[in-house]
Design brief:
Layout (H helix, E strand, L loop, with lengths): L13 H15 L4 H6 L3 H15 L6 H15 L2 H13 L4 H6 L11 H13 L8 H11 L1 H24 L6 H4 L10 H5 L1
Length: 196
C-alpha cells in the first residue's frame, strides 16, 4: 500500500479472521493490508463485503459496462485502491484489458463506444457532490439499456461511492494487485480531465 493508513491495521485473527484470509488469498493472492484497517470494526468489514458480493450477483447491466461504471466512479473520487482492485478483477473475468486500462482517461481514449461513454459519463455525474445526472443522459440510457439496467447502474455507482469515499477517508490506497499479474499500468487522467 502506498503511503500510510489513517487507522492502524491490526492482525486479522480468530475463526472468522481465518476465513477472511482464505477468501482474500483466493481472490487476490494475499491478505490486503486494508483488511487489517477494517478489522478494527468487523461488522462494517463483514457487511460491506457482503453487500459487495450481492452487487456482483446483479445481472441486468452488462458486466463490462458495470466495471467501466465502477472504475469511472472510482477515478472521479480518486480511489486508487478501487481502480487497482477492479482492474485486477477484470483480468480474471476475461474483460478487454486494453479498454479497462483506459477507463480513468476514457474521455481521451478512442477505444470506447458511444454507449460505453454514456455509462461512464453517468458514473462520473452520479459521483459528483451533489449528483449531476441529467434527464437527457438518464433517458438515453433507459432507451439503450432499459430501466432495470439503469437502476442497477445507479446502485453500482452508489456502492462504489460508499467504498471509495470510505477508503479515501481511511487512507487506504492501491496495493498493486494489477502489478502482481503483470497488467500494464492504468492510464492516468490528464490535468485537463481532472478539471472537466
Amino acid at each position: 500500500m502506498s503511503g500510510h493508513t489513517r487507522i492502524r491495521p491490526i492482525p486479522v485473527t480468530g475463526a472468522y479472521g481465518a476465513l477472511v484470509k482464505i477468501v482474500s488469498r483466493r481472490m487476490v493472492g494475499k491478505v490486503p493490508e486494508s483488511m487489517g484497517v477494517l478489522w478494527n470494526h468487523r461488522a462494517i468489514m463483514r457487511d460491506s463485503m457482503a453487500i459487495g458480493q450481492k452487487v456482483e450477483h446483479w445481472k441486468e447491466l452488462d458486466p463490462a459496462l458495470a466495471v467501466y461504471a465502477a472504475m469511472a466512479s472510482a477515478a472521479t473520487i480518486g480511489c486508487s485502491f478501487c481502480l487497482d482492485f477492479n482492474y485486477f478483477m477484470s483480468h480474471g473475468r476475461g474483460l478487454d484489458e486494453a479498454k479497462v486500462r483506459e477507463v480513468p482517461c476514457w474521455r481521451e481514449s478512442t477505444l470506447f463506444t458511444p454507449l460505453e461513454r454514456r455509462v461512464m459519463q453517468y458514473a462520473e455525474d452520479a459521483s459528483q457532490t451533489p449528483p449531476a445526472v441529467t434527464d437527457e443522459l438518464s433517458d438515453a440510457l433507459v432507451a439503450d439499456l432499459g430501466p432495470a439496467a439503469v437502476v442497477e447502474l445507479a446502485a453500482r455507482v452508489a456502492f462504489m461511492n460508499m467504498t471509495a469515499r470510505m477508503n479515501l477517508a481511511l487512507g487506504i490506497h492501491s496495493e498493486q494487485f494489477a502489478d502482481a499479474c503483470g497488467l500494464a499500468p492504468l492510464a492516468q487522467r490528464s490535468a485537463v480531465a481532472e478539471r472537466a
